[in-house]
Amino acid sequence: MSINRWKFPAQIIFNARRAANSARIGAVTATILLHASLLQAAAPPPGYQQQRGEIVARYSSARPLQWGETVAGVRTRIRGGEKLIALTLDACGSPRGMGVDSRLLEFLERERIPATLFINARWIEPNRAVFDRLARNPLFEIANHGYGHRPASVTGRSAYGISGTKSVAEVVDEIELNARKIEQITGVRPRFYRSGTAYYDEVAVRVAGELGHQVAGFSVLGDAGATFSAGQVKKALLGAHGGDIVILHMNHPESGTAAGVIEALPELQKRGYRFVRLSDVDLE
């Protein structure tokens, strides 16, 4: 067996050599163990390549006809006429969006207001303690906001200057890799997916369905990507009606989102509205 040791991290090689010396198992055995451990670390998740290949084959000839936030298959409202509103909070994980709006989250926790949290993979590790706390809180459910926060396209279309996925295979990677990451950490596979920018073509939405996700859009633009002032957020929320899904952001503490939410939600409750997680209701 031949291994080019210069391609492997120096610390791993050092640890393998030290283990070989202390245990007196010999250089050949140590090399075999090292090689096996590196292959295991680099291997794709079990069954992933087969799953990916089957979906790619199934949709290889599909050509999208739609592009936007409300293409066929995107669920934008709660089914039925009850006075229910779903709050959805995105954590996008961009270089300028890695923060935590603690004021917003603490308000929801204190007032016992449920929400669905769409988390991008890049946001998780820098905010791991917060993520773990939110995942344990039954008020919240963790949803899938993609692995790289990319628009969901099978042809590479872009939205807001962000390049979309370029193929069915890349759509699968964008959705499934983050789903598996969330499930590995929390023990619960996410049911809902929202792409970066919330833009899709209808083929990508169907691929999401193949991966066991409902694509959750929105009917109320709550903070316009955390660019609204507190007054604008309040106005948007007070314009909500029964069955609306509100999109907000939880990764920009410098924004007006928290202040607007804190002012609006008590008024909505006085009007008889209740707040729900997406998994508590049927969507349409």
Task: Tag the structure with descriptive keywords.
2 domains, alpha/beta, TIM Barrel, globular, single chain, six-stranded parallel β-sheet, 13% strand, disordered N terminus, 284 residues, 10 helices, two-stranded antiparallel sheet, 10 strands
Instruction: Please give the largest β-sheet.
Output: 6 strands, parallel
- Mean pLDDT, rounded to whole units? 88
**Could you list the spans in which at least 5 consecutive residues all have pLDDT below 50?**
1-42
Task: Enter the CATH topology name of the largest domain.
Answer: TIM Barrel
Corresponding CATH architecture of the largest domain: Alpha-Beta Barrel
Sum up the overall morphology in one term.
Answer: globular
The number of helical segments is 10
Describe the structure.
The chain is of the alpha/beta class and 284 residues long. It has ten helices and ten strands. The chain folds into two domains: 5-42, no CATH class; 67-280, TIM Barrel (Alpha-Beta Barrel), CATH 3.20.20.370. Strands 1, 2, 3, 8, 9 and 10 form a six-stranded parallel beta sheet that branches. α1 (10-23) packs antiparallel against α2 and α3 runs antiparallel to α7. It starts with 9 loop residues before the first helix and ends in an 8-residue tail after the last strand.
Helix/strand layout:
Elements: H1 10-23, H2 27-42, H3 48-58, E1 84-91, H4 102-110, E2 115-119, H5 121-124, H6 128-136, E3 140-144, E4 158-159, E5 162-163, H7 168-186, E6 192-193, H8 202-210, E7 214-215, E8 220-221, H9 230-238, E9 245-249, H10 257-270, E10 274-276
Parallel strand pairs: 1-2, 1-9, 1-10, 2-3, 6-7, 8-9
Antiparallel strand pairs: 4-5
